[in-house]
Amino acid sequence: MKFLYKILLWTIIIMAAAFGFSGYFFVNYVFETALNREIEQAMSDSNILQFAFETAALNIPTKYDVLQDIAVEQIGSKLESGGQGTGRLLRLSDEGKKMLYASEGFPEDAVLIQQVEENTRAYQVVQQGEHYYIQTGIMVNVMDRHLYLETMEDVTEVFAERAMGFSVYRKVTLAMLAGCAVVMYIICFWLTKPIRLLAGATRKMSEGDYSYRAQVVSSDELGALTTDFNRMANVLEDTIGELQEEIRAREDFIAAFAHELKTPLTAIIGYADLLRSRKLDEEKHFLSSNYIYTEGKRLENMSFRLLDIIVTKREQVEGQPIAAESLFQYLQDMFDGNTEQQIDIMFEPATVHGEVNLIKSVLLNLVDNACKASAKGGIVEIDGACREEGYLFQVRDYGVGIPEEELKKVTEAFYMVDKSRSRSKNGAGLGLALCVEILRLHNCALHIDSRVGEGTCISFSLPWKECMDPANHS
Questions:
Q1: pLDDT tens digits for 411-451?
Q2: Domains in the chain, please, with CATH?
Q3: CB 156 within 8 A of CB 81
Q4: Which residue from 385, 382, 378 is spatially nearest to 395, judged by alpha carbons?
Q5: CA-CA distance, 193 to 203, in Å (whole number)?
Q6: Global pTM exceeds 0.70
Q7: Distance between CA atoms of 6 and 22, rounded to whole angstroms?
Q8: What number is the average pLDDT over the span 56-77?
Q9: Among 399, 371, 406, residue whose Cα is nearest residue 456
Q10: How would you write 232-294 as a 3-class SS string?
Q11: Is residue 27 a contact partner of residue 166, using CB atoms and an 8 Å limit?
Q12: Least CB-packed of 167, 237, 359, 386 within 10 Å?
């Protein structure tokens, strides 16, 4: 059952119970009041009849000192005829509670008369067929006799009014419930509108429409819930977008990796087959072997860098103080006489903080890329300087440069601006991706400034350790 109908149903049940109980007590209260009034009237009439009986008995001429039964019957007959048209019945009984006179239709039971004693009165409500009566009983003392006077007053109208009251109240209650049901349906429909909108938004999102948002139609708790839902949907949409982008990047990574493996493997297999199947002269044998060695080294280099990326994504770096001079000396030793480019190194002495092997790997990759991008005899500048935020490393070349639209992609794994040139120099497109991951572990990032035909400058700043004063690093 829908929440709307649950609210409506329980509201109607509660209202029906409230109307039912209140109506029952109200009608009964009116009935009890009317019945008590009739009882008081019946008791008052009984007193009047007692007085009238005693007066009539004293006025009857008799030669006896005791009131005779025949006289009692005569008085009873006169009292009954005097009350014609009032619907009143009476009965007279002697000391032994034996009936002396009774109106026609007076019941024969003697239950009430057994409760009547001297100076006491009794009454009861009795039903005969479809009529209701108030039966009263009183003792009459006259001429040395103790007689019993009983009366019956018709109060059927009071009970009929109660039945009519219940009937009218039931109809009024049903009409009120019907009207209230319509009003409550409108109210419940309005109150549950935010819930329906949320349910619709949930269905839309479950069907894949993550951009759908629920409309905020109130400023109460349900409105706040809708706002929170929309905020959650925004986060969910962003997260799904990031996951989809990550999946796309992984697919691109796998495709690029498979392609990068295919190229050197094809060369290795081809030249190996040539060496195996033919007898070559010394020069061709050397060239074929050299191709196999070169492509194998490229595979090895690509594997090591890929492994480094995986490791840096999973581990935390444990830094230690490093003399900046040792890093630049390492680069000088690595490239001095081993490259066709001119390496110029300038730096300010300082102590930096990081994992020495990883920082060396970053600098080695950056200088290697700069050499590959430069022409033969080109200049590659390596600088180090103290800055307020940290120690700044810069590697600058004056080579081919990187197009502006490629700058955001060069740090992706296997991405190469010039694939043919990179492969010819054993490049795999993993160097900058590795640098990004290493620097992320050191709480810093690469900054690339490049212009096509003018060259590229790549820099990063290693933050000062918190316990060290930047002014005292040199």
A1: 665 454 444 444 444 444 456 777 787 788 888 888 889 88
A2: 3-170 (3.30.450.20), 317-472 (3.30.565.10)
A3: no
A4: 382
A5: 15
A6: no
A7: 24
A8: 78
A9: 399
A10: HHHHHHHHHHHHHHHHHHHHHHHHHHHHHHHHHHHHHHHHHHHHHHCCCCHHHHHHHHHHHHH
A11: yes
A12: 167
CA separation (Å) from 215 to 190, 196, 201? 14, 10, 9
Find how far residue 259's CA is from the centre of its chain. Answer: 48
Phi, psi of 153 (to 5 degrees): -105, 130
Reference 117, options 90, 97, 88; nearest CA is 97
CB 178 within 8 A of CB 164: no
pLDDT tens digits, 344-379:
999 999 999 988 877 887 888 888 888 888 888 889
Contact 462, 354 (CB under 8 A): yes
Two structure tokens written together for 185? 């349906």
User: Which two three-digit tokens encode residue 399?
Assistant: 């080579």
CB neighbour class for 450 (10 Å; exposed up to 12, middle 13-18, buried from 19): buried
Consecutive H or E run containing 364? helix 356-373
Retrieve residue 135's tokens: 């039966």
The Cα 15–Cα 173 span in angstroms is 9
In the numeric block, the tokens 């694939």 are attached to 419
- What span, in angstroms and rounded, lies between the C-alpha atoms of 231 and 198? 13
For 156-215, the pLDDT digits (tens) are 899 999 999 889 988 888 898 888 888 888 888 887 788 888 888 888 888 888 788 888
Q: How far is CA 61 from CA 65, 103, 119, 142, 362, in A?
A: 10, 24, 27, 14, 146
Please enumerate in sequence order all residues whose Cβ is within 8 A of that of 315, keeping only pairs 6 or more positions apart, or say none: 441
CA distance 248 to 239: 14
Distance CA 240, CA 61 (A): 119
